[in-house]
From TrEMBL:
The keyword Oxidoreductase applies. Residues 121-293 form the FAD-binding PCMH-type domain. It comes from Massariosphaeria phaeospora. Belongs to the oxygen-dependent FAD-linked oxidoreductase family. Pfam families: FAD_binding_4. This is FAD-binding PCMH-type domain-containing protein. Keywords: FAD, Flavoprotein, Oxidoreductase.
Length: 550
């Protein structure tokens, strides 16, 4: 994916963030006779309803120039069988987007298909529509809605659940990967990023201004999915979740209207987008608060599991300290033979006293020596690659659980993992991601999110299975489910299981939106119904954590 940086500092944000326009929900299709006038109408609606920096003339011209062919397609759609229907929609896409509507006949098709992180998501979309700005997203959505074509939306493509940022030949993939720009406001308080921007590039950009943002920890992951799923940064206890640090979302609603959702405009939508997933619209820009503390210390230490007791005791000590010292960032990867501790601190320092609990535990490897760096320099080290050394490609499946911190439980879970992996060569493991009461308070203070974290110390577990051969899909998936279920029952039996499932790590078979609690889910349903009364995102969107299926 290409990374483009806007040159210099914009004098103002690209669009007004105080757009009080209320979306119109006219069912335009019943009032117009042709596909071309439908699409032109959507452009017109957006121009009159927002202060959008326009790219309209080019789009208008393309639609006018191809009006006859588009209208012929519009007429054929209703009577076409399903297979022909998607081909027609892709043809319309080619008339509008040219070679950026990629069909199987084009040489770049395989590249598009293989953009997703997990090869389980290399699905053969009927076509990929590479959109470049909010207006093009609005037209793409208008096209799939007009023709009632299934679609999926992809930003960074890092969600490993098939059908989330991917779709098979029955539908169209709206690819936001090219919307990867970043701007900084004149007063440098806001960084505006496109949904296809990846975190290492976002950090790289803001760090040029000696600033940072609350964002993802690993390179490669897209802003789009991570923020909408809530988002965990290194310092959740300091910043809250990543979504808590959004000042404004630019969103294309189901009726193709482009709106700004923030504390002054569409407040209900603003809150719902903070962790509510892909239920309300396609987000085309995130305006993120910037912060001065871009200097980060980190150290990545690998231990043998024979030291599990000491490592887990140290982990619990660090977790306790995190409740009062919000400079601490920490995670622990649990593998079959190794434990890897990610020690992170929100300032440049020598070895922070907060991690002294790890002193004296024999280290197998200082995988990343203690470094005074930045989020940009650390994030590539945390990336898990799709391709291995011998160019083999990986399949991934994930799951999420939340447990309370407890030395004995942490120790026992290592045994559980070892028992489940047994003699198989499956790469199975999980990561403890601690956060606590301060993270919940941040969410409440910053105009509240949909996630509804309990204000108490907890570890969000991210479980991952990694394998290479599709013949092993069933075995790998069933081992992962077994691990989820065993951890769940072990923690529950000791009163240490919490109901929360983190959307960004959850399996498609879990229900993270339900885990937010009945009130939060009811609110999300109400907002989805208000902004998408025809249920475009529930019915035409191929998959994702949808309120209608929660
Ligand atoms: C190596 C790795 C490291 C990770 N590290 C972190 C981490 O530090 N913190 C964390 O919180 N999570 C982390 N994750 C999880 C990650 O946040 C999720 O997988 C997330 O869904 C990825 O976002 P994406 O844009 O890359 O994915 P995609 O697959 O493109 O999208 C994921 C979902 O979001 C929807 N979506 C994407 N963009 C939009 C949009 N603009 N508008 C509406 N819907 C949209 C898609 O339709 C899909 O359902 C990590 C994942 C990986 C693989």
């Amino acid at each position: 994916m290409l990374w483009t940086l806007a040159l210099g500092i914009c004098s103002a944000l690209p669009n007004s963030i105080h757009d009080d326009h209320l979306p119109q929900f006219a069912d335009r299709r019943q009032t117009v006779e042709s596909l071309s006038s439908h699409l032109l109408g959507l452009i017109q609606d957006n121009l009159s309803s927002t202060t959008l920096a326009t790219r309209d003339s080019e789009l208008r011209q393309v639609i006018n120039n191809n009006a006859k062919a588009l209208n012929d397609i519009g007429k054929q759609i209703d009577s076409a069988p399903e297979t022909r229907r998607t081909a027609l929609v892709c043809k319309a896409g080619q008339l509008i987007y040219g070679s950026r509507a990629v069909t199987p006949q084009q040489p770049t098709y395989e590249e598009e298909k293989q953009e997703n992180w997990s090869t389980t998501c290399w699905l053969p979309a009927a076509c990929f529509l590479n959109v470049r700005n909010a207006l093009e997203v609005s037209i793409a959505l208008g096209l799939v809605v007009f023709t009632q074509t299934p679609f999926a939306v992809r930003s960074g493509g890092h969600n490993p659940s098939p059908g989330f940022g991917s779709i098979d030949q029955s539908g169209v993939l709206i690819d936001l990967g090219a919307m990867d720009s970043a701007w900084i406001s004149a007063d440098k308080s806001i960084a505006s990023v496109g949904p296809g921007a990846t975190w290492e590039n976002i950090y790289d950009y803001v760090e040029q201004h000696q600033l940072t943002v609350a964002g993802g920890r690993a390179a490669g992951v897209g802003a789009g999915g991570l923020v909408l799923g809530g988002g965990m940064s290194h310092f959740s206890n300091h910043w809250g979740l990543v979504c808590d640090n959004v000042k404004n979302f630019e969103v294309v609603l189901a009726n193709s209207t482009i709106v700004q959702a923030n504390s002054k405009s569409h407040l209900d939508l603003f809150k719902a987008l903070k962790g509510g997933g892909p239920n309300f619209g396609i987000v085309t820009r995130f305006d993120l608060h910037t912060y001065p503390d871009y200097r980060v210390w980190y150290n990545y230490k690998v231990y043998n599991t024979s030291n599990v007791k000491r490592v887990m005791q140290a982990t619990i000590e660090v977790q306790k300290a995190m409740e009062t010292n919000d400079k601490i960032g920490f995670f622990l990867n649990q593998g079959v033979g190794t434990l890897t501790a990610g020690l992170v601190y929100r300032e440049w320092t020598t070895f922070p006293a907060a991690f002294r609990a790890f002193d004296g535990i024999p280290v197998l490897l200082d995988a990343i020596p203690a470094t005074n760096g930045t989020q940009a320099s650390f994030s590539p080290a945390l990336y898990v690659r799709t391709r291995g050394a011998n160019d083999q490609t990986y399949r991934f499946e994930i799951g999420a659980l939340t447990i309370k911190p407890d030395v004995q439980l942490y120790q026992d879970l290592q045994l559980v993992l070892q028992q489940i992996v047994g003699n198989s060569n499956l790469n199975l493991g999980f990561t403890y991601q601690p956060l606590g009461a301060p993270a919940a308070r941040q969410g409440q203070a910053k105009s509240s999110n949909a996630v509804n974290i309990r204000p108490e110390p907890q570890s969000w577990l991210a479980l991952v299975a990694q394998w290479t051969d599709s013949a092993d899909d069933q075995a790998a998936r069933s081992k992962l489910r077994e691990l989820i279920s065993r951890i769940e029952s072990t923690a529950r039996s000791r009163g240490l299981l919490l109901p929360f499932q983190f959307q960004n790590d959850a399996s498609y078979s879990q229900s993270p939106l339900r885990s937010y609690g009945a009130d939060s889910l009811a609110h999300l349903k109400t907002v989805a119904g208000k902004y998408d009364p025809r249920q475009v995102f529930q019915k035409l969107q191929s998959s994702g954590f949808l309120v209608s299926r929660a």
